Amino acid sequence: GFTMFARTPLTRAIATVVPSLLLLWMLSDSVRAHPDYLAYFNQLAGSHPENVLAESDLDWGQDLDRLGSRLTRLEVKDISLAYFGSALLHKSALPAYHPLDPYQPTRGYVAISLHDLVLESAKNGSYAWLKAYKPSERIGKSIDLFYIP
Q1: Digit-coded pLDDT (tens) for 41-54
Q2: What is the DSSP secondary structure assignment for residue 116, as one 8-state letter?
């Protein structure tokens, strides 16, 4: 029968190696995304996926428990918070918290969902004052934690 490519050792090798490499790449992506499968979308986004997309693909508030655990380890007693998610904050392991004012700078510990920091800021300039500071750390993939003296 008619074949588009001659069956040579080279074409057989390519037909075996290329799919195997693609499968390994896919598996390595899954391993690197662990445990943040929800927030992961591709290698090109790198360690700052919010520079590509900060809508619900990245942030559903899934890191609230991690935030509570981290604040407990840091012995934080009070925090200003801008949280994007549907969890009931009063049932979380957070210390005393109050809403982060989008336009008025504050001091102390500040936690903000990337959705609010990136998307809301782009819409209406809210939280623009916070961009002058570097986060102390990223909680999971979706919350930035700041300490502002």
Answers
A1: 666 666 666 666 55
A2: I
CB count within 10 Å of CB 92 equals 15
CA pair distance 38, 40, nearest whole angstrom = 6
Provide the token pair at 31.
Answer: 């391993």
Tell me the two tokens of residue 139.
Answer: 């909680």
Q: How many CA atoms lie within 13 A of 82 on its CB side?
A: 24
Q: 29-79, pLDDT tens digit by residue?
A: 777 766 776 666 666 666 666 666 555 565 566 889 999 999 999 999 999
Reduce the DSSP state of residue 105 to 3 states and report it: coil
For residue 77, which of 97, 92, 93, 91 has the smallest C-alpha distance?
97
**pTM beyond 0.90, yes or no:** no
**Phi-psi region at 144: left, alpha or beta (left = phi > 0; alpha = psi -120 to 50):** beta
